[in-house]
Amino acid sequence: VTARRPVDLSVTLGPLRLANPVVAASGTFGYGTELLPYLRLADLGGFVTKGLSLRPRRGNAPPRTCETAAGMLNAIGLANVGVEAFLAEKLPALRGCGTAVIANVFGETRGEYVAVARRLNGADGLHALELNLSCPNTEKGGIAFGVSPPIIRDVVAAVRRAAPDLPLIVKLTPNITDIAAAARAARDGGADILSLVNTFLGMAVDLATRRPVLDNVVGGLSGPAIKPLALYMVHRVHREVALPIMGMGGISGTEDALEFLLAGSTAVQVGTANFFDPRATVTIAAGIAAWCRREGVARVRDLVGALRVPEGPPPGPCAG
Amino acid sequence: MPVDLPALVVAHDAVNPDHFLLTLEAPPIARRARPGQFVMLQARAGHEPLLRRPMSVCRVPAGRRGRIDILYKVVGPGTRYLSQQRPGTRLATLGPLGNGFPPPARGRRPVLVAGGIGIAIFPFLADVLRRRGARPILLFGARRRRDLVGLDLFRARRVPIALATEDGSAGARGFVTRLLEPLLDGGAARRRARDASPPEVYACGPTPMLRAVGDLAVRAGVPCHLALESHMPCGIGVCLGCVVRCPGDAAGPIYRRVCTEGPVFDAGTVLP
């Protein structure tokens, strides 16, 4: 019988220190208070709010979601209360909640990103910003900010200047040829932390009506179905870019989270699992602690990037 | 406040080949539930299907404290898997969720309008209304006779029932609105039925039926509560996936969450 020593679950991502490595992902946790019937926020490392824009947004027409094999598609349309209502109504309710509150930020123009970030800089009770780069850039024909490295560097640098007091997390889209190039661009723009990956673009077809299931036609795929894709991208970015990572993509249980830590995530975000289990985050945090005790791991941070990879050059693009 | 618990399956009976009545032991949910509320039920092996299924609380059986009944129809892999769960297994059950039905205004007679498996929401409402001294009547429409399930749950409560089927195999031929229209027409039918109390409509069923019932009630100036169905990933208001379109303003419609702002909406306030 081994003595039960407490496991040190704390992790440090650049300027951001978390009590444990489990963070609830944007768009799956509301503004935090919605989950209070089911868990104590203090048992989380942190949570990321629904994406905030300069003005409130109503979002897309339904159907907005569609279940797929081991996953789901969503096209919510970035519906949110807007940054002013967040500051006036949502953030005050979170003061003293005992966890890191991270505001997810997006805009349709570089100027909107800057305006939202400036408004949030210095807000009482806010611990970090996360930039959602998957939003269409209306000044560049609607192509997402996050698919162009020069645009990533530019918008990240502008937000960095607008919110100098908050740790800056940049959330990368996987819908790009080379995610490492996007990661380097975010680093060069001044990102403190990278979070990856956002959802993969996908669609579903209703055979009976011969129409797309989603009113928006295209949506973002999330859930266990994307875990191997996300894990690879985390591994890749960890090898190539020296910034702390919050990895995510299909994490539904303790083992999933541990795999992301080994692949190079300092913290993990849990998203879609919150939908089918509102206690998924805290269950995973407790599961990581139990696993570490069992395996004799004293500090969870010792697992980060501890993947045993074969010697030699990184894996090539051809897997066939 | 809702709770999430592993509810024990205590009974699970086929009503007919594709309709089932599931009894779960879930005391905190049974204690808190109100008519019109629902639970999110997990029924899966591994990650398939991924999401829980929203199910109306069909009944909180009196005298058997702590149990809830769920009446459902097998329509896909989730409900098929659910139908295979035998007594003794446990199913993660989150609830009660949603706003539930409001009580009828004083002096109004509740008219429950069900379409197909929409019937599942009404036994609980009928029980509570009867206990409070109201005299609900049930109008029940379905495609064909075998889809008219759960009638004994109302007969035991002495709720008058009128039936309609699209193929005419039971009751009136046509849609359930055919049964509703005479009750809304200013009183001729009510006078014939020797019932002077004006109606208040409670409806649950397929979206086209809810649209038709809502339109009829609004036109007749009769209060009408629509219980909506929606694909609902979370049930707790965070995914924003289950929204229904509602009248907005010059900038366009607004969207409300069926899970937390509903599932019951007054006719005229939603555009389902």
Describe it:
The complex is a heterodimer of chains A (320) and B (272). Helices cover 28% and strands 19% of the residues of chain A. Chain A is an alpha/beta fold and 320 residues long. In chain A, helix 5 (227-240) runs parallel beside helix 6. The radius of gyration of chain A is 19 Å and the shape is globular. Chain B is of the alpha/beta class and 272 residues long. In chain B, the strands form 3 sheets. Chain B has a 7-stranded mixed β-sheet, with helices on both faces. Chain B has a 6-stranded antiparallel β-sheet with strand order 4-3-6-1-2-5. In chain B, helix 5 (177-184) packs parallel to helix 7. The A-B interface holds A 27-30, 34-35, 37-38, 50, 58-59, 61-67, 69-72, 74, 76, 79, 223-224, 252, 272, 274-279 and B 1-4, 42, 47-52, 92, 94, 230-231, 233-234, 236-245, 248, 251-255.
Defining traits:
heterodimer; A: 320 residues; alpha/beta; 8-stranded parallel beta barrel; 4-stranded antiparallel beta sheet; B: 272 residues; 7-stranded mixed beta sheet; 6-stranded antiparallel beta sheet; 7 helices; globular
Tell me, briefly, the overall form of chain B.
globular
Strand segment count of chain A: 18
> What multimeric state do the chains show?
heterodimer
Figure out the total of helices of chain B: 7
The greatest interface between two protein chains, and residues involved on each side, is: A-B, 35 and 33 residues
Strand content of chain B: 25-35%
